[in-house]
Amino acid sequence: MLVPFLIMLREGIEAALIVGIIASYLKQTGRGEWMPAVWVGVFLAAALSLFVGGGLELMSAEFPQKQQELFEGIVGLIAVGILSSMVFWMRKVARSIKYALHESLDAALAGSKNQTYALIAMVFFAVAREGLETVFFLLAVFQQSEGSGAPLGALLGLLLAVGFGVAIYSGSMRLNLGLFFRWTGLFILVVAAGILASSVQALHEAGVWNHLQGVVFDISALLPMDGPAGSVLAGMFGYQDAPTVSTLSVYLIYLIGALVLFFMPHTPKAGKSVQPHPSSVTNE
Length: 284
Hints:
about 75% helix, membrane, ferrous iron transmembrane transporter activity, transmembrane, FTR1/Fip1/EfeU
């Protein structure tokens, strides 16, 4: 429940920030009449995310066992790729995202024709990326979870994100976005390592990957996966009580590499100022 809650909270706040930045800029520049087009873009992006998520879930329900395992493995790998890119992309652009959105908004409204469609498309693609990232992650988590805990956690995270977004936009709440994205990003990388290991195991059960299947250790008697603590660890971090060489290897290789990159100081490209743009959305 905690994993989907935090992911939906983070992704929801990202989406709320995007919409809030656009809405504030339109209001500040006297272009508030364009807000209906912004909401059309938001609703279209949400509809696409729901359609893709529902379609993939319905499609996977019809698969036989081995194809189901293959589907879970592929979705898990996609989720790891998306989660990783999301964390490092936000780390890179967090200080300039507000300025970039302002530029995109000005460009969309600069032409004399099709301004409405340009604005809808700009908002749609900005929000749809967040939605599709969330869809693939939640599919990977739901496939590894039982009961209603994961969907409930995702719903609570979304509702809280909406509340935070409204509070931040209205000015009644200030959130240190730098710290928020940094620590949730670190948590996401640990979760992604577990999803990657589970995906490799799913590919083995599908008959696609059959290498390095020797068991490294077996602590099922001490901390079984179907026990209270084991099930929580499995749901949050992909814990396995009897990991194979392949699952443990990919877990450690990914996690160590990702953490090294995550804590490595970010160096702006040559020719660009190292100072954040004054319209930064973070308060690091």
